[in-house]
Structures are given as structure tokens and as C-alpha cells.
Amino acid sequence: MTQHTLQKDKLFFALLPDPDAGEQMADLAKDWRWNFDLSGTPVPIERLHVSLKGVGRFDGLPDSVVKAAKEVGAAIKGAPFELTFDQRLSFKGVPHPLVLTCGAAPAPLLALREALVTGMTQAGLDTGKPAAFVPHVTLLRDPKPLAPAPVDPSIGWLVRDFVLIHSVDGQGHTHLGRWPLQA
User: Fold this and answer.
1) How far apart are CA 84 and CA 151, in angstroms?
2) Given phi > 0 = left and psi -120 to 50 = alpha, else beta, which region is 171?
3) Distances 56 to 83, 124, 125, 128 between C-alpha atoms, Å
4) Could you tell me which of 8, 72, 155, 162 has the fewest CB atoms within 10 Å of its CB?
5) Cα–Cα distance for residue pair 51/143, rounded to 1 Å
6) C-alpha neighbours within 13 Å on the C-beta side of residue 41
7) Are the C-beta atoms of 169 and 8 separated by less than 8 Å?
């Protein structure tokens, strides 16, 4: 019998909220946990992010994939842009991810993601099956889903850069690269 290897190392490109937005998100997660009698633990502030594009899951990180992903990140050009989250959703899952989303993804965010997909394809990295892109920040996971609702006041920040994150299941995030967006 072949033993299945658990691929616990995840590599992906992401946006990080600025400190003020991150604090507002962490406070909102605590408020929702209290106000809606949720039992899930809020995502630690240092792990709040908007996933842009996954590079892959691995059992250990292949150096060649990390090198190629860093080259893709370094080649991306774009200007800073505003990103605002104004909706609350519970995604399907067990437990349900409770997330912040934006009513409409700004064009520069979509262009950044498309540039990453194009760069990954040109670098020979697997971009996976095309999937709908729903920009979101997961604040906590809970057995109880919440109804969609507006977030007022909304939470946003000026996106000035993006990162390459190595995530190990249950052990946190390490930033392997950071690239500025410059006008």
C-alpha cells in the first residue's frame, strides 16, 4: 500500500493589510466573535492577508519553485492602489471561514493577479485550474455561519507592495519576498 504524503508547505502570493487596517480587522473579528457567540479563534494579526495566487502545495519547498516564484514577483510592475473591504460573508466549509470581501474588486487588483498568472505561466509554474477570484481576508473560522452583511465602516488601505508567503499548516507564515508597487 502506498502511503500518501501530506503536502503541508503552501507557497502563494498575497497582499498584507497595513498595520492600521490589520488592527481594525483583528478588532472586528473579536467583536463578531463576542456579538454573534462564535467559538472560533480569530486569525492572528500577523497572518491576515489577501491571497492573490497560489504557487502550490509541497512536502518541503523545492528551491527551483521558490526561485522561479521570486523571479515572477520581481518582474511585476504596477502602481499602488486603494483596496477596501465592505462586506461580511461566511464561506462554505467546516468550519466556515468568516471573511471580509469587497463589493467590486478594483481593476488594479485584478491586473496584479493577472500579471502573476501570466508570469507564472511564462516561468513554467503550474497555475492550476482557472477559478473565480474572490478577494477576501479570513478573520476566523467557526462552525456557525453568519449571514452576509455590509461592513460599516469599511476597512481599507493603500496597497504599496505584495509578498510571497510560505505557509506551513499549523505553524504560521514566512515571507520569502516582498516587491513594491511603484507609479
Assistant:
1) 10
2) alpha
3) 25, 13, 9, 9
4) 8
5) 22
6) 4
7) yes
Average pLDDT in the 102-126 region?
94
Q: Is the pLDDT of residue 108 over 90?
A: yes
Given CATH 3.90.1140.10, say whether it is the number of domain 9-180: yes
Hey, what's the cell of 145? 455561519
DSSP element (H, E) containing 120:
helix 107-122
E-state strands within 20-142: 50-58, 81-90, 96-101, 136-142
Average confidence score pLDDT of the chain: 93
* Cβ neighbours for 68, distance < 8 A, ≥ 6 positions apart: 123, 124, 125
* Res. 183: pLDDT tops 90: no
Q: How big is the chain by its Cα radius of gyration, in Å? A: 17
Instruction: State the CB neighbour count (10 A cutoff) for residue 5.
Output: 9
Among 113, 146, 115, residue whose Cα is nearest residue 29:
146
Domain boundaries, the chain: 9-180
